[in-house]
């Protein structure tokens, strides 16, 4: 799908290096900055299609890697995928059964953009909340979390929830993000648990 930035330097590099999208560089950058993935971690990637983060994750850990998406993902060596809704308890159980222990949950999921900034930002936060709920349901104590978000009026409340569930909750703006983007990554380290009865 074409766009005004579709042939920029990051895009050309992704094509040259065999990544399925330029998003691969964002994960590499966050990992270099925050070290959220250890060499034997089992990792779940939510909203994983087309699979560029899965490609990168496979190089970062010798543990198991699973991608979850509503759409099928073309096969990647050493990676399992589940076609399903991350909100579905059955999907969450499948992940736990296949991995045994879930050390890290990552999400680069984005809503389909409408062009209405406030609506799009609210939808992005909704996806973040779903990813955090998935992490709360599956992560082992001490596990890590990474989710793409967008800065706006609902963002501070989401960041507070991450900071309540993890010993450390920080943000990171990737240099690989497009110029002028409000995209920001939320990093939760050392999972301590979620308030399951919270609204």
Polypeptide structure, described:
The protein has 199 residues and is of the alpha/beta class. The chain has one domain: Vaccinia Virus protein VP39 (Rossmann fold). The protein is built from six helices and seven strands, in the order H-H-E-H-E-E-H-E-H-E-H-E-E. The chain has a seven-stranded mixed beta sheet with strand order 3-2-1-4-5-7-6, with helices on both faces. It is globular, with a radius of gyration of 16 Å. The chain starts with 8 loop residues before the first helix and ends in an 8-residue tail after the last strand. The N terminus is likely disordered.
Q: What descriptors fit this protein?
A:
6 helices, 199 residues, Rossmann fold, 7 strands, disordered N terminus, globular, alpha/beta, 7-stranded mixed sheet
Please provide a brief summary of the model:
This protein has 199 residues and is of the alpha/beta class. It contains 6 helices and 7 strands, in the order ααβαββαβαβαββ. 37% of the residues lie in helices and 24% in strands.
Kindly report the name of the CATH homologous superfamily: Vaccinia Virus protein VP39
How many domains?
1
* Quantity of strands, as a count: 7
Span between termini = 38 Å
Shape: globular
Query: How would you characterize the largest beta sheet?
Result: 7 strands, mixed
What's the CATH class, please?
Answer: Alpha Beta
Detail the poorly predicted runs.
Answer: 1-6
The averaged pLDDT comes out at 88
Element-by-element helix/strand order: HHEHEEHEHEHEE
The CATH topology annotation reads as: Rossmann fold
